[in-house]
Amino acid sequence: MQLFKSARAALYAAGTVFAGALVAAAPAQAQEPIRIGAFLAVTGPAAFLGDPEQKTLEMYIERLNAAGGVIGRKLQLVSYDSGGDAEKARTFTKRLIEQDKVDLIIGGTSTGETMAAVPLVEQAQIPFISLAGAVVIVEPVKKWVFKTPHTDRMACEKIFTDLNHRKLNKLALISGAGGFDRSMRAECLKVAPKYGIEIVADESYGAADTDMTAQLTKIKGTAGVQAVLNCGFGQGPAIVTKNYRQLGITQPLYQSHGVASKEFIKLAGGAAEGVRLPAAALLVADILPANDPQKPVVTAYSHDYTARYKSDVSTFGGHAYDALMIATEAIKRAGSTDKAKVRDEIEKTKGFMGTGGAFNMSPTEHMGLDLTAFRMLEVRNGNWTLVKD
Q: Quick check: is 6 in a domain?
């Protein structure tokens, strides 16, 4: 009987050790993926922004997984096409949080989509990195919300600095009806006095307008106009540019960073010649000086993207790259996907060189770029060129 009890005890002990080994091995064999949620305008009027964002996330998540993932776990992209619609963005954000149980969210191609998602991510306490431009996304600072694109206010300031260099101070504005358009117009009006810029005309157009001749005719007839700035993105700025040339307006025309892609030049055609706009270094990666600290990053991204998709790069895909890398580096530093820890590590991002510039975030700065991250570009011979400061 004693022998039986001893044998039974030995078997029990061995079984316990074996079961313990299985439990210990199970997480290593079946680790849950890190779920990256996204809602992007892959189709619709803002598709030229959202499509490269989607492609960039897909490409680099695939590359990260091929290299072993992050903190020993593979990444899984859970993405929805919002078509640029704020209501769809709100619905998809809710789904990403409640049904898909994502660990963080990257997206919001446009300002309207982003702002629709903000209350939901704040309430759910989930890290969110926006790909939209308006300063309202990060001012005032929202605990769980960050962004990678340069702000509309920065665009105004970069353009006004260029106007100062050209000794031009009387500016006409023409703006679209979107969230970004309205925000940039407001920011330009706000900071114009700081740069000695006088706004002498202020026109607008609707989202569905296909001809802005009437508004531009008013601007042409305004006394003293020395330059014109179009606050907008999508197809509207290309129409403005064409109408501008058709009317024979000779003053310099500026556009926003909301059209910082080769697609704008294609849409505007020859009318784009001479147009200036502020943008990230990514658009001129091949002509940056060899000692430019951004050159290795933007050159590598440009090579990877064009080789994979056989299409031109845009700053918008670059924003998605920056967001993904900032997020994954934060997860590495946190050593987990604990949302509060990841949020804190995103906020601690320092010296990260991305396609948009050098990012330095803090509790009071949830974007982390300064004005030096912008380059002033001009369209020459159907391509982007650097304007010398």
A: no
Per-residue pLDDT of the chain (389 residues; tens, 9 = 90+): 443 334 344 433 334 333 344 344 444 445 899 999 999 999 998 898 999 999 999 999 999 999 999 999 999 999 999 999 999 999 999 999 999 999 999 999 999 999 999 999 999 999 999 999 999 999 999 999 999 999 999 999 999 999 999 999 999 999 999 888 999 999 999 999 999 999 999 999 998 899 999 999 999 999 999 999 999 988 899 999 999 999 999 999 999 998 998 899 999 999 999 999 999 999 999 999 999 999 999 999 999 999 999 999 999 999 999 999 999 999 999 999 999 999 999 999 999 999 999 999 999 999 999 999 999 999 999 999 999 86
Looking at the fold, whether 172 and 266 belong to one and the same domain comes out as yes
Q: Would residue 188 count as lying in a domain?
A: yes
pTM here is: 0.86
Q: What would the DSSP string read from start to end of 169-198? A: -EEEEEE-SSHHHHHHHHHHHHHGGGGT-E
Q: Is the residue at 286 inside a domain?
A: no
Helix, strand or coil for residue 138? coil
| CATH code: domain of residue 132 | 3.40.50.2300
The C-alpha atoms of residue 220 and residue 237 are separated, in whole angstroms, by 17
- Report the relative pairing of strands 276-279 and 375-380 from DSSP bridges: antiparallel
Instruction: Decide: helix, strand or coil at residue 379.
Output: strand
Same domain, 347 and 306: yes
- φ and ψ at residue 343, rounded to 5 degrees: -55, -45
Q: Judging by beta carbons within 10 Å of its beta carbon (0-12, 13-18, 19+), is residue 344 exposed, middle or buried?
A: middle
Nearby residues of 137 by Cβ (< 8 Å), 6 or more positions away: 108, 111, 114, 115, 118, 130, 145, 147
The range of the structural domain enclosing residue 187 comes to 153-279
Packing angle of the helix pair 236-246, 213-220 (nearest 10 deg): 50
Contact criterion met (CB below 8 Å) for 93 and 105: yes
Number of domains in the chain: 2
Establish if 2 belongs to a structural domain. Answer: no
What is the rounded distance in angstroms from the CA atom of residue 117 to the CA atom of residue 50?
Answer: 16
Closest CA to 214 of 189, 250, 240: 240
